[in-house]
Amino acid sequence: MFLRALILTSAAALATGSALAEEVNVYTTRQPELIQPVIDAFAEKTGVTVNLGFVEDGIVERLVAEGSRSPADLVMTVDIANLKQIVDADVIQPVDSAVLTAAIPAPLRDSDNLWFGLTTRARIVYASKDRVGDGEVTTYEDLASDKWKGRICTRSGTHDYNLGLLSALIAHDGADAAKSWAAGVKANLARKPQGNDRAQVKAIWAGECDISLGNTYYMGQMLADPEQIPWADSVRIVFPTFANGGTHVNVSGVALTKAAPNKDNAIRLMEFLVSEEAQKIYSEVNNEYPVLAGAKVSDLVASWGSFTPDNIDLGSVANERPNALRIMEEVDFDG
Ligand code: FE
């Protein structure tokens, strides 16, 4: 009920937004409670009012429909696929900011300055503490080997998170190798792809499989839910790498709309979001990783250990998405 009231209030605030006031309007697909703490810190520091509009579905269609009359200055969303979709819809303008380019490593921002990563999440392996030995999980490529036969659980192959991983694999190893890999992983599945990332950990807890693919922050979400704590306790996080790279990461990010009625304050907010203070808050709320080198992670995130993020450019990864989708369909991954 509270959330509903918040969303309605935000929508009303956006509808009456004016370029004259000291404000910034943000459309976000992220849950408002994940963003609010960092927004509050910005508002407190600058006196600028930030109106958050939570847009669960159809954010691209909405921005296109609103065109130059859109009240939105910034779009905040997760996954490179969503950021690319917004950029491809031609509703974004570049931001030339030395602050942003200094704070965000090049692979995590657009080379034309159209989107900027704010936090990362690694796509890792959740491994049964009882049934998977230290060192048994190695590379993503190895997940297609016979030793995992009947031992892997995952959500749909066509979910953004798995398409992102497969896109990165294509970028590393080429489309033919990626197709063999997808077929190999499918052959190793303990059951047909179903459910979300946490449902796979539940399946490990229940003994249905030994490892699953999942994003790191779901460990934090499971530990925050009494029913799911036993699932979380049955696994440990292992960071696989690509054979010729690091661990696959994706981003949550931000982009400036073409319409941006409050452009200057919007860029101030973007720059604040990569400050040490904001990076700590923003990454901690959802147990993600900061993009700013040296920014603090939460104690929980630190407890998972360190890893080397893959350094392949996320823009190149996004470009492989159509190929990744085609491969998942050709191998009938979910079938
Ligand atoms: Fe998620």
In short:
The chain is an alpha/beta fold. 43% of the residues lie in helices and 16% in strands. The protein has helices at residues 2-15, 32-46, 59-66, 80-88, 98-103, 160-173, 175-188, 197-205, 217-223, 229-233, 263-273, 276-285, 299-303, 314-319, 321-330; strands at 23-28, 49-54, 74-78, 92-93, 116-128, 152-153, 211-215, 235-238, 249-257, 289-290.
Describe this structure in words.
The protein folds into two domains: 5-120 and 251-297, Periplasmic binding protein-like II (D-Maltodextrin-Binding Protein, domain 2); 122-247 and 309-330, D-Maltodextrin-Binding Protein, domain 2. It has helices at 2-15, 32-46, 59-66, 80-88, 98-103, 160-173, 175-188, 197-205, 217-223, 229-233, 263-273, 276-285, 299-303, 314-319, 321-330; strands at 23-28, 49-54, 74-78, 92-93, 116-128, 152-153, 211-215, 235-238, 249-257, 289-290. Strands 1, 2, 3, 4, 5, 6, 7, 8, 9 and 10 form a ten-stranded mixed β-sheet that branches. 43% of the residues lie in helices and 16% in strands. The two termini are 39 Å apart. The protein is globular and about 60 Å long. Helix 6 packs across helix 15. By secondary structure, it is an alpha/beta fold. Bound molecules: fe (iii) ion.
Key features of this structure:
single chain, 335 residues, alpha/beta, D-Maltodextrin-Binding Protein, domain 2, ten-stranded mixed sheet, 16% strand, binds fe (iii) ion
| Secondary-structure element series | HEHEHEHEHEEHHHEHHEEHHEHHH
**Overall geometry:** globular
Q: State the fourth-level CATH superfamily of the largest domain.
A: Periplasmic binding protein-like II
* Largest sheet report: 10 strands, mixed
Instruction: Evaluate the radius of gyration.
Output: 20 Å
List all distinct small molecules, including ions and cofactors, that are bound in this structure.
fe (iii) ion
* CATH class category name of the largest domain: Alpha Beta
